[in-house]
Amino acid sequence: MIDQLKAGREEAYAYLVDRYHHKLYVYANNLINDDLMAEDIVQNVFINLWKRRKKLKIRISLERLLYKSVYNEFIDQYRKKTTILRVEKQYYEHFNALLNEYDEDALEKAVKLVYATVQELPVKCKEIFLLSKSEGLTNAEIAKHLGISIKTVEGQISSAYRHIKATIGDKINVMLFLLFDMIKGKENSTIHRR
What domain range includes position 186? Predict the structure, then answer.
């Protein structure tokens, strides 16, 4: 089976998916207690198995390797989620501080100022910045999408931050968070109305 997998035999891969998918899903769901995340974990394990099939060095049984891979993927997902929660907590603390500092009109004016400042960026710089902050693309995804280097993407985002920070000051991250959160909220409400 391993030799067939290494040789790129899709039937071997399909056999493994058919045989182990449900068992691995149940195991993942017991770890994370979330149907969709469990499905994502198992899918990632099988995708990575196929991508790395030529380099497979199995010192344990294939079944144990799959279970170990699910566990490792669960740990990776848990770490990412913990990091995101920590970052979100910081933003919400800053957000609450802003709400206490500004009244509603002042906050709306500040967000409009951020928006206007983003609109003033050079065309390419603005496009890259919006792909990053509004669309949530990684630097590598932006580079691939636009056919430019990652260094160029990083440089343009840094340039945008400098320009915006010169106008807004130290509260730049919270203000950007507010701006793009409001934009997404408007987009979502437009989608739901359709």
Answer: 102-193
Residue 116 shares a structural domain with residue 164:
yes
Look at residue 151 in the predicted model and tell me its pLDDT.
Answer: 93
Give burial (CB, 10 Å; 0-12/13-18/19+) of 34: middle
Q: Residue 59's pLDDT band (boundaries 50, 70, 90)?
A: low
172 and 123 housed in the same domain? yes
Q: How far is CA 139 from CA 43, 136, 143, 179, in A?
A: 24, 9, 6, 20
* Rounded Cα distance, 73 and 68, in Å: 9
Give this prediction's pTM: 0.43
Is residue 88 a part of any domain in this protein?
no
CATH of the domain at 157: 1.10.10.10
